[in-house]
Structures are given as C-alpha cells and as structure tokens.
Amino acid sequence: MAQSKSFRNSSLSDRIFDVCNIIFMILLVIVTLYPFLNMFALSFNDANDSVRGDIYIWPREWTLRNFDYVFSESNIFYATFISAARTIVGTVVSVFCTAMLAYTVSRPEYKLKKFVSVTFIFTMYFSGGLIPGYLLIKELDMLNTFWVYIIPGIIGVFNMIVIRSFIEGLPEGLMESAKIDGAGDFITFARIVLPLTVPALATVSLFVAVYQWNSWFDVFLYNSSSPSLTTLQYELMKMLSTSNTSSASSAADAFANAKGNAAAVTPTSVRATMTIVASVPIIIVYPFLQKYFVKGMVVGGVKG
C-alpha cells in the first residue's frame, strides 16, 4: 500500500522511468530464462514429436526416454563423479590459497605487496600461451593426472582482488588485537579474517565452482587419453561434436541403432538433455549462496 501511494505521489518522469524499468526487467528475465526453458521442454519432450517443431517452453508429449538414453551411457555417472570431485576439491583449495594470498597483499606492513599485486595483475592481461603452458604441464609430470584440474588454476587474480578488497575493509583493530594476544599471521588469518570474509569467500567459491564444473578444454588438452579422468562436460562436448559433424538424419539413426529402438532419440533431444543434466547442480547451489554473492560483489566493487 505504501509503495502504491509513493508511486502515485511521484513525478511524471519518475513514473515513466519506473514503468520503463519494470518493462525492461521483465524483458530481460524472459530473454534470460527462455533458452533454459526451451532446453527443458526439448529434453522432456518426445524426440519424434520435437522434430515437428513449435516446442518453446513446455513439452508437448512428455517422456523420460531422453534421460534414459543419456544415463544409460556407461561412463556418464563416473564422469559426473569426476566433475563433482574436481569441483569440490578445486573450489576448496583455490579459495583457501587465494584467500591466503589476498590476506598477505592486504597487510600494510608487507613491503612487497605492491610488487606482488602488480605481478599477478600483469598475468590477467598477458599469458605464456597454449603451447608453453602445455609444455610446462608436461615437464611438471601432470599429464593424465587429476591434479592438472586443480593446480594450474589454484590462484585466480580477479578472485584475489575481490577478497583483498573485502579484507581491507575490515577493522584493523581486530588484527592488532589478535597480535597483541600472541596470535601469529596464520592464526589471525584462520580465526579472525576467514570468518569475517564469508560473503567474499562465497562469491569467489561460486565463481570457481562454476568454472570447475563447466570446464572441458583442460580435459581435452591434458587427459583426453585417460577415460578414467573424463568429466561430464567433456562427454557433453563429445556428444555435441558428434551431432554437429554429422547430418541430423544419420546422427539420429546412429543414436537409434545404438539402443535398438528406432528414432528413440535425436541429436537435438540429447543435446538438450545433457544441457539440463549439466546445469542442474549449479542451479541448486546458487540460491544458497545468492545473498553472500550479492554482498561480496557490492563490497568488492566499492572497495576495489
């Protein structure tokens, strides 16, 4: 009621702005949600019926046959396990190490903080390149290992800047009090800084988790010859590649013959189903981190 009175009492220009803003946000929501809803409809719709077209945001003929096909692949569950493992381990290790670096470069008594910060920021704009990076990984004997997913990306410079900006906004008296009580730098970091930087850590955790979950190129580059280290996204990429390099009819026949069920699935239905399967974990996790994500980005943006 108060909001409606405020709207009526506002000026004409404010009303026009509010109406235009509401219309724009509604259109933005539609544009953002439509691709996902379309994939949802195609994944749950009968593949033969989908060929007719006109499937938008709601399935016309419901079926779980597409999901049966995807999950009947022998390596899908194992690839999902590897993706989950690299996401959990990679997120925990990366966030902890990045937070330690951010705490170090945020301390005013650290004489090399500016040099270290500039050096890390320099790497955001210039890299050694793909071939030198591959040769480095090879020399470190990390080819065909799980740790090639974790160690090369253990420090994120942008993430470090977000956490550092948040730490610099904390009361300096807290750290000084801890040192007076005899706490060292690591104790101060672990018991004082980390609990107070939860919003920034949650923001960075979401960034890292999404990157780890969606990453497939490092699998292709370093572990393509190790089926035991494949990931869900890499399997999705191979399936998309197979569909895109063959005609729709021949691909559909290949999928159908693989299951002995004529025209059971099509490349389009499989792509949509794999997209939904790969997206669900992030969609489930994000609502729990949303309030920390917004707060962390606001504070990091203002302080940065």
From TrEMBL:
It is a multi-pass membrane protein. It is found in: Cell membrane. GO terms for cellular component: plasma membrane. GO terms for biological process: transmembrane transport. The chain crosses the membrane at residues 16-37, 76-103, 115-134, 146-167, 188-213, 270-289. It comes from Paenibacillus monticola. It holds the Pfam family BPD_transp_1. This is ABC transporter permease subunit. It comes from the Bacteria. CDD domains: TM_PBP2. Belongs to the binding-protein-dependent transport system permease family. Keywords: Cell membrane, Membrane, Transmembrane, Transmembrane helix, Transport. Residues 80-289 form the ABC transmembrane type-1 domain.
